[in-house]
Amino acid sequence: MDQRTGLKPVGLPTRGTTGYNRLRRSDRWLVHSPRVRAALLGAADPLVVDLGYGALPVTTLELAARLQTVRADVRVVGLEIHPERVATAQRSAVEGVEFALGGFELAGLRPVLVRAFNVLRQYPVTEVDTAWAQLRARLTPGGLIVDGTCDELGRLCCWVLLDADGPVSLTLACDPFAIEQPSDLAERLPKVLIHHNVAGQPIHTLLQAADRAWASAAGHGVFGPRVRWRAMLEQLRAEGFPVDPPRRRLRDGVLTVPWATVSPTRPSDGP
Q: Tens digit of pLDDT for each residue in 149-199?
């Protein structure tokens, strides 16, 4: 139990893996997302929670530095269930960043933004809705949640954006130099979707369409994979997929669609 709040952390310890710049792609997306920026700029208290930051606090510190370019008074609280990890992180605390014991109850905090990366991936899929509901109940009005998964180096990332009502969008992000085709990202889908990547499910349809569009854009590869990715997005939009247009300066391969585009049509059979 957290002696400061009197609350017992809800959840299980993560494996704790982390690394410098591992979450840079999601951080860049957060900084440029109109909805996230509006939430931060409009909040009376720009409090952000980084849930399950792992054995080292590096990604929490990086998140704070990047979000403070949007609003200088952003405060970030890193929460971990593992007391030793909290004690280690507290030695690295800087102005605007602190660390505390907590889980899905968010240590009683009411943030405007919650980032939970590589957390729910370790839970059974049947527990995702409950965890989401716990997080959503703690949001301040207008608050948002990012539930995501990435590989060890942060080159392949996927995340769901949620608000108080439920999922809003899905984003796939990668280093275009690190893939052979967009469906390589399937292994990093969030827990809520990874077992739905089968024929007949919307996420499978999207990934297959992205692979076809990527193949048809092969001629653009002479200008580099980032140009080829942009051509792929244009092809998907031409086919009727409601893909968000890319930012003008394209550093990452990013594909964002409304949640309705990928929402599962039947329960998962996966663990």
A: 999 999 999 999 999 999 999 999 999 999 999 999 999 999 999 999 999
Contact 190, 131 (CB under 8 A): no
Coil/strand/helix, residue 34: helix
Q: What pTM value is reported for the model?
A: 0.93
CA gap 161, 92 in Å, rounded: 28
Confidence check: pLDDT of 225 > 60 = yes
Distance between CA atoms of 232 and 30, rounded to whole angstroms?
A: 23
Please give the structure tokens belonging to residue 151.
């590989």
DSSP class of 253: E
Between CA 169 and CA 89 the distance in angstroms is 31
Side chain identity at residue 203, one-letter code = I
Q: Are 62 and 115 in contact (CB under 8 A)?
A: no
**Cα–Cα dist 105/151, whole Å:** 26
**Are 102 and 2 in contact, with CB atoms under 8 Å apart?**
yes
Q: Could you tell me whether strands 156-163 and 144-150 are parallel, antiparallel, or unpaired per DSSP bridges?
A: antiparallel
CB of 103 closer than 8 Å to CB of 11: yes
Is pLDDT of 3 > 60? no
All structural domains of the chain: 24-190+251-258 (3.40.50)
**50 alpha carbon, distance to own chain's centre:** 11
The length of the chain is: 271
Can you tell me the mean pLDDT for 49-73?
96
Instruction: Please choose, from the candidates 175, 152, 110, 105, the residue with its C-alpha nearest in 3D space to the C-alpha of residue 133.
Output: 105
